[in-house]
């Protein structure tokens, strides 16, 4: 967040402190609250719109730009077309039926509601992004933690010199081309297959499942699909996650598609591919450039004084 946004967010309660914090009090340069010492993500300072703009910026100018939409009058600015899912279940209460409505703040794009619900049921309940629940706050905290805005937008970094600005822009351009990815949800053996009108194709009843090769083409019948992380079998009628950068011969259980460094679920299936495994944005960037433990930005020569002040504070 910019300093102006931090100032406007004063008083936002801390989700970690559970009432112990008097409200967000921005530090002058560290990404934390002066009141409780917790990080910005623990206060969920950003709005849904700001989060969608951030992901839209990340995905634009990449092969995943179809997941974004142009903002009217935004001079080329794009916003994330976040897929939400609403489930309405009738509840019999005497003569007058009522309805229980559940809204998921995010759901896998390009799938049927049935497959999307199956996917959600395979995620731990406390991590399901249902509106108004801890799972929805958990998603937003991960979004802030895994995809820091200053890792993709040089204008959000403090004091960049002209040569550093150019180097940062090139760094972002490179990881968008070589590492950035968005996981795809499908039934085992159906990863990489064309979708009809943006909806996941259902496997015909009685049809044998074919295993795609790494370029998405079908190689032949396969009896068993195995999760890359836990090595457990993926049932033929249960959704899995595919990574196009890994190749469609590999799949993950929904709960197993996590960052190889921190083991946290990858927010909205956004990953960075490196060393044969998916990483979250934060740890991917840290694996290439060190991060200042004070201001949380990627380390540059003019961070040395900040680091000393951080250690003394």
Automatic annotation (TrEMBL):
Listed A to Z, the keywords are: Cytoplasm, Glycosidase, Hydrolase, LIM domain, Metal-binding, Repeat, Zinc
Show the GO MF annotations. hydrolase activity, acting on glycosyl bonds; transcription corepressor activity; zinc ion binding
- Give the PROSITE patterns listed for this entry: ENDONUCLEASE_III_1, LIM_DOMAIN_1, LIM_DOMAIN_2, PET
Q: Does the keyword Zinc apply?
A: yes
Q: Give residue spans, biased composition: Polar residues.
A: 211-220
Bias category Basic and acidic residues: which stretches?
A: 194-206
User: What is this protein called in UniProt?
Assistant: LIM and cysteine-rich domains protein 1 isoform X3
The record lists the organism as Physeter macrocephalus (Sperm whale)
Highest classification ranks of the organism:
Eukaryota, Metazoa, Chordata, Craniata, Vertebrata
Q: Which gene encodes it?
A: LMCD1
